[in-house]
Amino acid sequence: RPLLHWSANERWHWSRRSSQQGSACRLPACILLATVLVWPCDRCCNCSRRASRAPRVSFVPGAIYQQDSRRPTRPLTRAVGVGREVFGQLNFFAEEGDVDAALKEFAQEQERGKRTPGKFPWTMLYNTVLKAMANRGDFVSAGSWLDRMRDERIRINGKTFGKLMEAAARGGDVDLAARWRGDKLAAGFSADAVDANIMMWAYSQAGQIEKVEEEFERLESGGSYVELSSYNVVIEAHARLGRAQDAVRWLSRLRNAGLKPSLYTYLWLVKVHATAQQPGAAHTWYTSMTKAGLDM
């Protein structure tokens, strides 16, 4: 059967059997094991964006909610946002990064809003279109959409700037993302952990590991609650550069903060040690992952 259809036990026994056949087999077995583990996760996160010609990413800042062991799980409606309930079809296209379909749906919702007596969530409507542009990484269209919001006197809030930052980060323009964060602060909105995650992820994609750690330290020293996702971004940044020891060091900081590693955390630890030709360490982290009940 194809490797991706193997069960967890089959992957475990296959890797164990391969490791017993000598040092010549251990490294290929471990690297392939890491590929089997990490690739499906990355593929599931990006299959919809590939269809919409969006850039491939393995971490979606502010969009993936990972449960924190130090506080109760948040309600689903809070995690996904009220926009899904109000503009269901439009939000679906926005999450897919389908800007063209989102604009068509926006036109219909706009006409409905003009006919609706009383208050209408105009800012939310425009922000949902901006969300589609952010998921696609189309920061040029996002900037034009911001100009349209200002021309039509649509109220701009903190989430507007957050989507602008995300569009720039996905599009690979770190400087533009930083500039829009500055505009957010200048407009009187406060920075939050989501903004920090976006900037850390953007710096990670650019290979600027020092900037990633600076953003984290600024977030932590500012008194904000540092969630598991923030630690995971730093661990991913080190793993992408093949810095296995630094990734493990940040895992220790994660645990010292009272947090528990997630499946996402372990996958990057397995991958960085496998690509660093350390099959024993990769196998150890995979074992720790399964013992924690986080096997895929």
Automatic annotation (TrEMBL):
Pfam families: PPR
Matches recorded under InterPro entries: PPR_rpt, TPR-like_helical_dom_sf
Keyword Repeat applies: yes
Keywords, in A-Z order: Repeat
PPR repeats: 227-261
Keyword presence, Repeat: yes
Protein name: Pentacotripeptide-repeat region of PRORP domain-containing protein
Species of origin: Alexandrium catenella
